[in-house]
From TrEMBL:
<comment type="similarity">
    <text>Belongs to the Orn/Lys/Arg decarboxylase class-II family. LysA subfamily.</text>
</comment>
<dbReference type="GO" id="GO:0009089">
    <property type="term" value="P:lysine biosynthetic process via diaminopimelate"/>
</dbReference>
<feature type="modified residue" description="N6-(pyridoxal phosphate)lysine">
    <location>
        <position position="71"/>
    </location>
</feature>
<feature type="binding site">
    <location>
        <position position="298"/>
    </location>
    <ligand>
        <name>substrate</name>
    </ligand>
</feature>
<feature type="binding site">
    <location>
        <position position="395"/>
    </location>
    <ligand>
        <name>substrate</name>
    </ligand>
</feature>
<keyword id="KW-0457">Lysine biosynthesis</keyword>
<keyword id="KW-0210">Decarboxylase</keyword>
<feature type="binding site">
    <location>
        <begin position="295"/>
        <end position="298"/>
    </location>
    <ligand>
        <name>pyridoxal 5'-phosphate</name>
    </ligand>
</feature>
<dbReference type="GO" id="GO:0008836">
    <property type="term" value="F:diaminopimelate decarboxylase activity"/>
</dbReference>
<protein>
    <recommendedName>
        <fullName>Diaminopimelate decarboxylase</fullName>
        <ecNumber>4.1.1.20</ecNumber>
    </recommendedName>
</protein>
<keyword id="KW-0028">Amino-acid biosynthesis</keyword>
<feature type="binding site">
    <location>
        <position position="395"/>
    </location>
    <ligand>
        <name>pyridoxal 5'-phosphate</name>
    </ligand>
</feature>
<dbReference type="InterPro" id="IPR002986">
    <property type="entry name" value="DAP_deCOOHase_LysA"/>
</dbReference>
<feature type="active site" description="Proton donor">
    <location>
        <position position="366"/>
    </location>
</feature>
<feature type="domain" description="Orn/DAP/Arg decarboxylase 2 N-terminal">
    <location>
        <begin position="46"/>
        <end position="301"/>
    </location>
</feature>
<feature type="binding site">
    <location>
        <position position="335"/>
    </location>
    <ligand>
        <name>substrate</name>
    </ligand>
</feature>
<dbReference type="InterPro" id="IPR029066">
    <property type="entry name" value="PLP-binding_barrel"/>
</dbReference>
Length: 438
């Protein structure tokens, strides 16, 4: 049921039976921009931003904001769109910071994360005036002491806390458990000691608390538990240390639907659930309402993305498997090879045809594990056909590499019936730009 596949991902099939993205025929996008091609549906991207923005305002009031976790897809255009829609931007490296600044996002709207920021990165952030540094560990306090003194400035910080909560998601993308490289542990006293240290640092202003428990989480309960733990901690440090938490940042992590087995809550339900827990818990502790932040990445950009591929070699091994090789692979989407991520696909020119075959959609890297979809349900496909893989907006382009010296694909924004290139396809010469000949 291919039309159902496109429809379930929120995309139309036109009268010719072709997949449409942002009102543009997928075949036209492939013809105009080449393949492999990362396409972002602009309206979907904006609608996801607005759903966060509007539901937060409705459920918590004006004292709340969504922040786009740019690492999901960090380009100038995606940072600009998020900011145009009223979101802040979260950056986790000097390169992401640089991208967001070049995108024209004011530094005060940037939130600087990272579990091992370098001295140069901290300095870049403070010199440009990032809104908040999210301090991850004691080492970062040392860096802040050095840099604030050198620049004769102050830093507004949040503390990243690790609440000891294990959501049901892949181990590689869990971040909130006790055994995590991220953040100050709440269960072992590290978080409390960090509050004490921050409140004694003359050049640091402790604004609030942050936690991010993991990614592709489809269950609301761990989010509720984490939010409740942060508010309880805020009450404790008020009572014991007379510290006021002005800001509460609950992180991101909401999952999206890659395959039918994924059943994530809607963005609006996720936001309401968290705003509800926070409000109730604040009331119980008689705490005044801090500013509330959420930091979604995947759920902003993931479902807006479709990757288009051209089929090359088709190899049938009787009684075993058919490999349909495409012109992309782990160099432009490492998620399947990295942690067994699953996707659905359609044949873009026959997006309404029944899926009769089960095939493996393989990439072209020199790794047997470079298979994008092990069991794709497709109509019969041949060399030259165009395949469309859904849900590829997040952690694909941003994780891409030049393995095998494949140039990274272009990124195109599709909306209002036209496609606009926002990241150009790399050329062979781009690949050699930093090589130095003997
Ligand atoms: C990655 C990350 C996010 C976004 O996670 P998603 O799963 O993409 O929503 C938010 N906050 C922090 C600190 C992160 O590291």
């Amino acid at each position: 049921m291919s039309p159902a596949i496109a429809g379930a991902h929120g995309f139309r099939v036109n009268n010719a039976g072709h997949l449409e993205i942002g009102g543009v025929d997928a075949l036209a996008l492939a013809r105009d921009f080449g393949t492999p091609l990362h396409v972002l549906d602009e309206e979907r991207l904006r609608a996801n931003c607005r759903e966060y923005r509007d539901t937060l305002a409705e459920a918590y009031g004006p004292n709340a904001r969504a922040i786009f976790a740019s690492k999901a897809c960090c380009t100038i255009a995606t940072c600009q769109i998020a900011h145009q829609e009223g979101l802040g931007v979260d950056v986790a490296s000097g390169g992401e910071l640089h991208t967001a600044l070049r995108a024209g996002v004011p530094a005060r709207d940037l939130y600087f994360h990272g579990n091992n920021k370098t001295l140069d990165e901290v300095e870049y952030g403070l010199r440009t005036g990032v809104g908040r540094c999210v301090v991850d560990n004691e080492h970062e306090f040392d860096l802040l002491e050095t840099v604030t003194a050198r620049l004769d400035t102050t830093a507004d910080i949040l503390l990243r806390l690790t609440p000891g909560i294990e959501p049901h998601t892949h181990q590689a993308i869990r971040t909130g458990g006790v055994d995590s490289k991220f953040g100050f542990g709440m269960l072992d006293g590290a978080a409390y000691r960090a509050v004490v240290r921050a409140s004694r640092m003359p050049r640091v202003r402790l604004r609030g608390l942050h936690a991010h428990i993991g990614s592709q989480v489809c269950d609301l309960e761990p989010f509720r538990m984490s939010a409740a733990a942060l508010v309880d901690f805020a009450a404790r440090i008020r009572d014991e240390l007379d510290v006021t938490v002005e800001e509460l940042n609950l992180g991101g992590g909401l999952g999206i639907r890659y395959v039918p087995a994924d059943e994530p809550p809607r963005i609006a339900d996720f936001v309401r659930a968290l705003a509800g827990v926070v409000t109730a818990r604040l009331g119980a502790h008689r705490l005044s309402h801090p500013r509330l932040f959420l930091e979604p990445g995947r759920s902003i950009v993931g479902s807006a993305g479709v990757t288009l591929y051209t089929v090359g070699a088709v190899k049938s091994i009787p009684g075993v498997r058919t490999y349909v090789s495409v012109d992309g692979g782990m160099f432009e989407n490492p998620r399947p090879a990295l942690y067994g991520a699953q996707y659905e696909a359609v044949a873009a020119a026959r997006a309404a045809d029944a899926a009769t075959d089960t095939v493996a959609v393989a990439g072209r890297c020199c790794e047997s594990g470079d298979v994008l979809i092990w069991e794709a349900r497709l109509p019969p496909v041949r060399s030259g056909d165009l395949l469309a893989v859904f849900g590829t907006g997040a952690y694909t382009y941003s994780m891409a590499s030049n393995y095998n010296r494949f140039p990274r694909p272009a990124v195109v924004l599709a909306g209002h019936g036209r496609g606009r290139c926002v990241v150009e396809r790399e050329t062979y010469d781009d690949l050699l730009r930093k090589d130095v000949s003997l």
